[in-house]
Amino acid sequence: MTEYDPIHIAFEKARNLLEGANENLDALPKAVATFLLVHGAQGTIDNGGFRYFFGSDWPDNPPYSRFVEAYRIIGCETQAKELDRIVHTFPFDNPHLCKDKRNEFIAKYYDKTSYEVSGWGDALCGDEDVWKKLAIYFEENALDFESSKPD
């Protein structure tokens, strides 16, 4: 990835908008917030699978349904369904608010031979289709990334 890569350009613009919105994702244009949710999620999953994605809290602890919806919005329905499936394996409500419970669940079912949580798989890890669709999504919504003030 170079500094001229569409994803890099979009991320820099989105990051600047987020900073201008005092790190409030909800104050951004929907396209920018969607981009940031997918970019953050996919980058984390690519680095360490679902275990990394669920192992830490996200800023402001958005419900995981927000990430699922963001994948759907950019056209990644299969990936959205897979992420939603994993979310629903947690045997408690509001897993996005329960870091300790999530990590206990992950530790209990982590398979050291496959390097993943049993039953989860890592279908999204390394999924280049997500990045391609995210770049297209940015191009289709580029004007939202040019806004000097959040919606």
How would you describe what is shown here?
- This protein has helices spanning 6-20, 30-55, 64-73, 77-87, 99-109, 128-140, 142-146; strands at residues 110-111, 116-117.
- The model has no long low-confidence stretch (mean pLDDT 93).
- With 151 residues, it is an all-alpha fold.
- It contains seven helices and two strands, in the order H-H-H-H-H-E-E-H-H.
- Helices cover 60% and strands 3% of the residues.
- The protein has one domain (6-146).
- Helix 2 packs antiparallel against helix 6.
Layout of helices and strands, plus pairs?
Layout: H1 6-20, H2 30-55, H3 64-73, H4 77-87, H5 99-109, E1 110-111, E2 116-117, H6 128-140, H7 142-146
Antiparallel strand pairs: 1-2
Helix pairs in contact: 1-2, 2-3, 2-6, 3-4
Please give a handful of descriptors for the protein shown:
two-stranded antiparallel ribbon, 2 strands, 60% helix
Entry summary:
The chain has 151 residues and is an all-alpha fold. 60% of the residues lie in helices and 3% in strands. The chain has one domain.
Number of strands: 2
Q: What general outline do the C-alpha atoms trace? A: globular
Uncertain segments: none
Structural class: mainly alpha
- Order of neighbouring strands in the sheet with most strands: 1-2
- Helix share, percent: 55-70%
Instruction: Give me the strand/helix succession.
Output: HHHHHEEHH
For the record, the count of structural domains works out to: 1
* CA gyration radius, whole angstroms: 16 Å
Mean pLDDT: 93
Described by strand count, sense and barrel closure, the largest sheet is: 2 strands, antiparallel
Distance between the termini: 30 Å
* Number of DSSP helical runs: 7
Strand content: under 5%
